[in-house]
C-alpha cells in the first residue's frame, strides 16, 4: 500500500533517471484525510446559505435537468439557500411522465416537445424566473436558442456543445447569461490567481521541475481540463512541462489507497496535486485542490444565479429610472 | 568554454541519496565555475539561457562575506557568471586580512578603510553593483556609504530604520533594490494570494483555515510570511485567528512530523496552509518549503542583474522591490 504522499514522492525525472524524493510523513496530510470524509450538509452550511438568502431577495429558478445528478444537487442547494425552486423541469425523453421529489418540492417533468409551451407559461407566471441548465452536451445549443428566444436569463452549467455558437446565440439576443465550464467558484479563484501570477511574473519559476497528478471518477476518460489550465499557467511561469505527463489516476484501488479518496466519493470526485521543485531541490511549492461530490458546483451555480439576478434587476432599475425621467 | 567535470565528494547519506546527487550536480557546476573566476575570465556556461550571460556579466561586490548569507551570495554570483570583486567589509576594527570562498581570496577591510576602499572600487569598476547582507545595526550607515559614493545596491539585510533607509536613498538618487524577502518565488506566491484576495474578496467565506510553519529553533517569532498569507485568506473570507498558527520549533517534530531534512534543521522555512469548506467536501492546500539559503542567494543575484539593467538603461525609477524584479521576467 502506497500512501498519496509516497506516490508523489516518485516525483522528479531528471536526466532520464527516476528520482525518488524522500518520504515525508506529514501531520497535516493525515488531518486533511480525516476532514474530507464527512459529506453531509452541516449546520454551518445551512447557516451560511441562509445568510446569503436573507441578504438577497428570493427569486424563482427553474432547473433544466433535474433528473440528472448535477441538476438534482443544484435543486437541493436552491431550496436550502431559501430561493424558490420552480416545480417544473424538462427531460430529453419525449414522454418522461411523472414527478420527482426534491426536498419538499414536487417537480413535474415535461418531455422534450413541450419545452417551449411550458417554459413560456412559466415565464408568464414568474416574470423574474431564471433557468439553470445541467443537461447534456448535445442539448446545449438548442436549449440556449430556446432561452434566448423566450428572453429568459440563464446559467449554463452544462459543458460541451458548440461553445462558439453558444456565445454567438447569446450575444445576438442580448439575453443575460453566466456561462462557465467550471462552477466550483473557489477552484476558479485558484485558477485565476495562478493565471494572474503567470501574467504578472513571467518566468519567475524558470528551471523549476513540475509534477502533476489528478484523480477523478473512472467514467471521466479525458484528462482534467482544470489541471491543464493550471499547467499552462506554470508554463508561462517558465516551467517546462509536457501536458502528456499529467498523471491520471482512474483505478479505484489506487484512488482509495494511494490518493485517499473517501469510498463514498469514488463515483464523483476531483483531486488535483501540483508540485514545483527548484533546480537545486532546496525549494518546493505544493498546491492541492480536492473536491468530493458535487456540492461545490451546486453552491457555485446558486452564487452565479444570484449574481445574474442582481445584474438583471439593476438593468431594470436603470430602465425604470430613465422611464421616470422622460 | 569550460567543460564540466564531475569531481569532489558525494555525500553518502542513504535516505537522501538521489536528492544529494542532484544537489551535488549543481554544486560541482559551481565549483568548476569558481575556479575560472579566480583568473577573472568571463565564464560562458553552455546551458540554455546561460549562454547569454556573457552579455550580462558585470562586477558585483558582496558586503558581509564573513556571514552565511554573504557566502551564499558569493557562490551564487560566481555560478551566474558575474565578476566578483574580491573585496568586502567587516565591522571588526582589525579583521582577518583575507577570506577564501571556493578558491577565491577576498580581502576584508575594517570600518576605517571603508570609504577609501569603496571609492577605489567604484573607480576601477564603474558599473559595480553591491549586495548587502550585514546586520540590522549596520543597515543605515551602510546605505549612507553606498549613497555617498553613488554605488547601486541590493539591500538584503533586514531591520534597521526602514523609513530612514528609504529617505537616504531617495535623497541621493541612487538605484537600489530593497526587500526583506529575497526568495523571489515566495514573493511571487504571496503576491498571487494578495491578488486573489483583492479580486475575489469573500470567495472562501466560511472556509476553515489551518496553518503550520517550521523554522530553525533560533527563530523565536512567528513567520512574517505566514502572517502575510493568512491576511490574504482572511480577506478571502476564511475563518482564522493569528494565535492559531502552529509554530514547530522542536527538532524531533521537525524531522519526524514536518519532514525537514536533518542537515537543514538550522536553516529552513516550511509553511503549510489548509483551507476546508464548511461542509468539508472541498479542501485546498498550499505549501512552500525552503531548505537552506540558496533561494535567497539566487533571488539576490536576480535583483542585482535587474538593478544593473536599470542603471544601464538610466531608468527613471530608482527604488525597487522584489515585485519589480518579478515583473521584469526571467533575466538569465
UniProtKB/TrEMBL annotation, chain A:
<dbReference type="InterPro" id="IPR023940">
    <property type="entry name" value="DHDPR_bac"/>
</dbReference>
<dbReference type="Pfam" id="PF01113">
    <property type="entry name" value="DapB_N"/>
</dbReference>
<dbReference type="GO" id="GO:0009570">
    <property type="term" value="C:chloroplast stroma"/>
</dbReference>
<feature type="domain" description="Dihydrodipicolinate reductase N-terminal">
    <location>
        <begin position="60"/>
        <end position="183"/>
    </location>
</feature>
<keyword id="KW-0934">Plastid</keyword>
<dbReference type="InterPro" id="IPR011859">
    <property type="entry name" value="Dihydrodipicolinate_Rdtase_pln"/>
</dbReference>
<dbReference type="InterPro" id="IPR000846">
    <property type="entry name" value="DapB_N"/>
</dbReference>
<dbReference type="GO" id="GO:0008839">
    <property type="term" value="F:4-hydroxy-tetrahydrodipicolinate reductase"/>
</dbReference>
<keyword id="KW-0220">Diaminopimelate biosynthesis</keyword>
<dbReference type="GO" id="GO:0009089">
    <property type="term" value="P:lysine biosynthetic process via diaminopimelate"/>
</dbReference>
<keyword id="KW-0809">Transit peptide</keyword>
<protein>
    <recommendedName>
        <fullName>4-hydroxy-tetrahydrodipicolinate reductase</fullName>
        <ecNumber>1.17.1.8</ecNumber>
    </recommendedName>
</protein>
<keyword id="KW-0521">NADP</keyword>
<dbReference type="InterPro" id="IPR036291">
    <property type="entry name" value="NAD(P)-bd_dom_sf"/>
</dbReference>
<keyword id="KW-0150">Chloroplast</keyword>
<dbReference type="InterPro" id="IPR022663">
    <property type="entry name" value="DapB_C"/>
</dbReference>
<keyword id="KW-0520">NAD</keyword>
<feature type="domain" description="Dihydrodipicolinate reductase C-terminal">
    <location>
        <begin position="187"/>
        <end position="313"/>
    </location>
</feature>
<comment type="similarity">
    <text>Belongs to the DapB family.</text>
</comment>
<keyword id="KW-0560">Oxidoreductase</keyword>
<dbReference type="GO" id="GO:0070402">
    <property type="term" value="F:NADPH binding"/>
</dbReference>
<comment type="pathway">
    <text>Amino-acid biosynthesis; L-lysine biosynthesis via DAP pathway; (S)-tetrahydrodipicolinate from L-aspartate: step 4/4.</text>
</comment>
From TrEMBL, chain B:
<keyword id="KW-0028">Amino-acid biosynthesis</keyword>
<keyword id="KW-0809">Transit peptide</keyword>
<dbReference type="Pfam" id="PF05173">
    <property type="entry name" value="DapB_C"/>
</dbReference>
<dbReference type="InterPro" id="IPR022663">
    <property type="entry name" value="DapB_C"/>
</dbReference>
<dbReference type="InterPro" id="IPR011859">
    <property type="entry name" value="Dihydrodipicolinate_Rdtase_pln"/>
</dbReference>
<comment type="pathway">
    <text>Amino-acid biosynthesis; L-lysine biosynthesis via DAP pathway; (S)-tetrahydrodipicolinate from L-aspartate: step 4/4.</text>
</comment>
<keyword id="KW-0934">Plastid</keyword>
<comment type="similarity">
    <text>Belongs to the DapB family.</text>
</comment>
<dbReference type="GO" id="GO:0009570">
    <property type="term" value="C:chloroplast stroma"/>
</dbReference>
<protein>
    <recommendedName>
        <fullName>4-hydroxy-tetrahydrodipicolinate reductase</fullName>
        <ecNumber>1.17.1.8</ecNumber>
    </recommendedName>
</protein>
<dbReference type="InterPro" id="IPR000846">
    <property type="entry name" value="DapB_N"/>
</dbReference>
<feature type="domain" description="Dihydrodipicolinate reductase C-terminal">
    <location>
        <begin position="186"/>
        <end position="326"/>
    </location>
</feature>
<dbReference type="GO" id="GO:0009089">
    <property type="term" value="P:lysine biosynthetic process via diaminopimelate"/>
</dbReference>
<dbReference type="GO" id="GO:0008839">
    <property type="term" value="F:4-hydroxy-tetrahydrodipicolinate reductase"/>
</dbReference>
<comment type="function">
    <text>Catalyzes the conversion of 4-hydroxy-tetrahydrodipicolinate (HTPA) to tetrahydrodipicolinate.</text>
</comment>
<dbReference type="Pfam" id="PF01113">
    <property type="entry name" value="DapB_N"/>
</dbReference>
<keyword id="KW-0457">Lysine biosynthesis</keyword>
<dbReference type="GO" id="GO:0019877">
    <property type="term" value="P:diaminopimelate biosynthetic process"/>
</dbReference>
<keyword id="KW-0521">NADP</keyword>
<feature type="domain" description="Dihydrodipicolinate reductase N-terminal">
    <location>
        <begin position="59"/>
        <end position="182"/>
    </location>
</feature>
<keyword id="KW-0150">Chloroplast</keyword>
<dbReference type="InterPro" id="IPR023940">
    <property type="entry name" value="DHDPR_bac"/>
</dbReference>
Amino acid at each position: 500500500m502506497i500512501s498519496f504522499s509516497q506516490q508523489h514522492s516518485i516525483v522528479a525525472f531528471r536526466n532520464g533517471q527516476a528520482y525518488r524524493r524522500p518520504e515525508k510523513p506529514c501531520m497535516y496530510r493525515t488531518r486533511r484525510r480525516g476532514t474530507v470524509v464527512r459529506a453531509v450538509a452541516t449546520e454551518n452550511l445551512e447557516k451560511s446559505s441562509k445568510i446569503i438568502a436573507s441578504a438577497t431577495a428570493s427569486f424563482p429558478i427553474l432547473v433544466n435537468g433535474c433528473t440528472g445528478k448535477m441538476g438534482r444537487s443544484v435543486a437541493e442547494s436552491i431550496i436550502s439557500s431559501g430561493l424558490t425552486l420552480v416545480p417544473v423541469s424538462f427531460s430529453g425523453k419525449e414522454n418522461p411522465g411523472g414527478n420527482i421529489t426534491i426536498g419538499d418540492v414536487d417537480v413535474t417533468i415535461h418531455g422534450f416537445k413541450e419545452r417551449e409551451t411550458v417554459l413560456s407559461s412559466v415565464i408568464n407566471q414568474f416574470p423574474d424566473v431564471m433557468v439553470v441548465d445541467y443537461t447534456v452536451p448535445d442539448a446545449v445549443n438548442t436549449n440556449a436558442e430556446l432561452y434566448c428566444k423566450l428572453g429568459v436569463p440563464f446559467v449554463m452549467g452544462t459543458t460541451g456543445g458548440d461553445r462558439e455558437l453558444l456565445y454567438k446565440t447569446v450575444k445576438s439576443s442580448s439575453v443575460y447569461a453566466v456561462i462557465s465550464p467550471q462552477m466550483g467558484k473557489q477552484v476558479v479563484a485558484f485558477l485565476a490567481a495562478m493565471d494572474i501570477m503567470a501574467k504578472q511574473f513571467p518566468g519567475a519559476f524558470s528551471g523549476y521541475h513540475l509534477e502533476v497528478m489528478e484523480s477523478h471518477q473512472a467514467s471521466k476518460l479525458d484528462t482534467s481540463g482544470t489541471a491543464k489550465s493550471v499547467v499552462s499557467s506554470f508554463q508561462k511561469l517558465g516551467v517546462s512541462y509536457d501536458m502528456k505527463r499529467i498523471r491520471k489516476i482512474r483505478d479505484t484501488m489506487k484512488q482509495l489507497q494511494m490518493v485517499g479518496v473517501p469510498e463514498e466519493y469514488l463515483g464523483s470526485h476531483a483531486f488535483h496535486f501540483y508540485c514545483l521543485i527548484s533546480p537545486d531541490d532546496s525549494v518546493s511549492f505544493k498546491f492541492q485542490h480536492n473536491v468530493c461530490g458535487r456540492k461545490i458546483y451546486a453552491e457555485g451555480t446558486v452564487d452565479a444565479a444570484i449574481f445574474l439576478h442582481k445584474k438583471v434587476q439593476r438593468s431594470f432599475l436603470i430602465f425604470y429610472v430613465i422611464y421616470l425621467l422622460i | 568554454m569550460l567543460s564540466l567535470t564531475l569531481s569532489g565528494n558525494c555525500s553518502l547519506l542513504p535516505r537522501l541519496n538521489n536528492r544529494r546527487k542532484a544537489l551535488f550536480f549543481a554544486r560541482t557546476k559551481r565549483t568548476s565555475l569558481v575556479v575560472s573566476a579566480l583568473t577573472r575570465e568571463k565564464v560562458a556556461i553552455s546551458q540554455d539561457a546561460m549562454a547569454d550571460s556573457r552579455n550580462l556579466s558585470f562586477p558585483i561586490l558582496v558586503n558581509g562575506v564573513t556571514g552565511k548569507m554573504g557566502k551564499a551570495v558569493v557562490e551564487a554570483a560566481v555560478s551566474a557568471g558575474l565578476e566578483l570583486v574580491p573585496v568586502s567589509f567587516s565591522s571588526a576594527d582589525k579583521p582577518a586580512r583575507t577570506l577564501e570562498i571556493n578558491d577565491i581570496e577576498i580581502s576584508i577591510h575594517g570600518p576605517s578603510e571603508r570609504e577609501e576602499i569603496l571609492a577605489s572600487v567604484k573607480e576601477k569598476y564603474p558599473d559595480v553593483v553591491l549586495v548587502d547582507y550585514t546586520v540590522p545595526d549596520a543597515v543605515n550607515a551602510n546605505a549612507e556609504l553606498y549613497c555617498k559614493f553613488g554605488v547601486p545596491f541590493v539591500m538584503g539585510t533586514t531591520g534597521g530604520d526602514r523609513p530612514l533607509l528609504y529617505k537616504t536613498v531617495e535623497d541621493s538618487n541612487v538605484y537600489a533594490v530593497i526587500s526583506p524577502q529575497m526568495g523571489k518565488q515566495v514573493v511571487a506566491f504571496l503576491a498571487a494570494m494578495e491578488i486573489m484576495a483583492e479580486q475575489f474578496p469573500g470567495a472562501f467565506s466560511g472556509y476553515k483555515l489551518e496553518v503550520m510553519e517550521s523554522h530553525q529553533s533560533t527563530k523565536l517569532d512567528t513567520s512574517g510570511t505566514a502572517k502575510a498569507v493568512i491576511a490574504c485568506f482572511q480577506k478571502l473570507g476564511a475563518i482564522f485567528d493569528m494565535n492559531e498558527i502552529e509554530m514547530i520549533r522542536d527538532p524531533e517534530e521537525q524531522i519526524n512530523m514536518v519532514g525537514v531534512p536533518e542537515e537543514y534543521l538550522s536553516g529552513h522555512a516550511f509553511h503549510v496552509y489548509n483551507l476546508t469548506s464548511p461542509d468539508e467536501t472541498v479542501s485546498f492546500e498550499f505549501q512552500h518549503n525552503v531548505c537552506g539559503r540558496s533561494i535567497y542567494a539566487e533571488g539576490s543575484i536576480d535583483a542585482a542583474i535587474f538593478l544593473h539593467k536599470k542603471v544601464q538603461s538610466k531608468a527613471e525609477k530608482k527604488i525597487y522591490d522584489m515585485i519589480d524584479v518579478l515583473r521584469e521576467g526571467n533575466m538569465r
